[in-house]
Design a protein that fits this description.
By secondary structure, the chain is an alpha/beta fold. It is built from 14 helices and 14 strands.
Length: 418
């Protein structure tokens, strides 16, 4: 019996017809819709090394303006609308992030500054690998920390879509033994898996899709394509932005909107990954206007749209941003910045104790800079993620998630309400 005779979608929920005849993994998928909502985590990676000092601006630090004479963001009250937006009297956000400033002051966004990987590499490839493996300095790690997180969580009522990356390939972060899937575009599934000539189209689609599905999900062809049918019937693309949400009209905006659609479709999504590029601004980075400002405008608009779109569902969702490393404290001779060390992270959601910039500020005086050139690291990114994974997702096994790291909860930044 075909799955379309067993399952139907009504009001974004999956109702069951003849549950006992369904494959076991789809029985879990159907049962999951009747269970209380699980907590969700969305990870956004800024590839290229974002400039944390111009994203979250230490405007009360005099050295900031000394070492960035042409790209510094003016302090509040000095530049009018073309100035940093005050957060707490010391830090401000870039004016392109005005929507996030509102979330910060509403207590729904926290920031961790001087955070990142303790490994000192300035290689994009190695730094991204370490941030995604969760084992800085160790190249031999086979899997990613987000996949290991899924390995530590209960599999009861898990669906094939519990771990999803928006993109053509699984990121390093989701490699591992836990099932995970890459979705290039949820709308493609609607076109390619149904409609007139479905058998012919689906036959061509199978070869393409097999390249983007983790081995653990592929299992048998029958279960894989019944899962595709399940996604087609849930039709995430039917869920349009709510509450005035306005996503950026680019790939990043499409990806973060589709995360919201997958969450609304109630198909068992627990963790989602997406990334955005273009942050390697060695030349003409700009200050209030320019390359970085344009990237931040999209970043802020996308996160704000996601927050609005999800509405009350944000009580169960935490979004974390990260980048492989920061930029040099000094601007370079090309009015840009080079590869640095510490950076900033955003943490957004209903469970977050927002309205605060967390972490110890090391200062930008020459004697406080790492190797005389970079913002020094004071918070290991694994402490931020560890708190979210343990206190939000509920894992009890951080040693598996971050092996070899001191996962002492007393060292967490304590940015969650729980």
């Amino acid at each position: 019996m075909a799955i379309n005779r067993r399952v139907f979608i009504k009001n974004s929920g999956i109702a069951m017809l003849g549950l006992s005849t369904l494959p076991s993994f789809l029985q879990r998928a159907v049962a999951a819709t009747a269970m209380p909502n699980k907590k969700k985590l969305v990870v956004l990676f800024q590839r290229g090394a974002a400039d944390g000092l111009n994203i979250v601006v230490p405007f009360a630090e005099p050295n900031y303006y000394k070492i960035r004479p042409s790209i510094a963001i003016p302090a509040p009250k000095q530049g009018g609308d073309a100035a940093a937006i005050d957060l707490d009297g010391f830090f401000g956000v870039h004016p392109s992030l005005a929507p996030l400033a509102k979330l910060f002051h509403n207590g729904e966004l926290a920031i961790v500054h001087a955070a990142g990987s303790p490994d000192t590499t300035r290689s994009h490839f190695d730094a991204q690998d370490y941030m995604e493996s969760g084992t800085p300095g160790v190249k031999a790690t086979d899997d990613g920390w987000l996949n290991r997180t899924m390995q530590t969580l209960p599999e009861e009522n898990a669906t094939p879509f519990r771990a999803v990356a928006l993109g053509p390939n699984l990121p390093r972060m989701l490699h591992g033994s836990a099932p995970a899937v890459a979705l290039p575009d949820v709308k493609q599934f609607q076109v390619l898996a149904g409609g007139a000539g479905a058998q012919r189209i689906q036959g061509g689609f199978e070869a393409m899709y097999a390249q983007t599905v983790d081995t653990a999900l592929r299992g048998t062809g029958t279960e894989t394509f019944e899962a595709i049918d399940m996604l087609k019937k849930a039709n995430p693309a039917q869920f349009q932005p709510e509450n005035g949400a306005d996503y950026p009209k680019n790939k990043y905006g499409q990806s973060i909107q589709q995360v919201a659609q997958l969450l609304k479709a109630n198909i068992g999504l627990e963790v989602a990954f997406l990334d955005t590029g273009g942050w390697d601004n060695h030349v003409n980075e700009g200050g209030v206007q320019g390359q970085l400002a344009n990237l931040l405008r999209d970043l802020g608009q996308g996160l704000d749209a996601f927050h609005k779109d999800m509405g009350d569902r944000m009580e169960d969702v935490v979004v974390v941003t990260m980048s492989e490393f920061g930029r040099t404290a000094h601007e370079n001779g090309n009015r840009g910045t080079d590869h640095g060390h510490a950076n900033c992270m955003f943490v957004m959601g209903g469970a977050v104790k927002g309205g605060k910039v967390y972490g110890k500020w090391p200062g930008l005086a020459p004697e406080h800079l790492y190797e005389g050139r970079d913002l020094a690291l004071t918070t290991d990114f694994r402490s931020v993620l560890g708190e979210v994974i343990q206190d939000h997702l509920g894992t009890k096994d951080l040693k598996t998630v971050f092996p070899g790291f001191d996962n002492d909860p007393r060292k967490f930044p304590h940015l969650l309400k729980t």
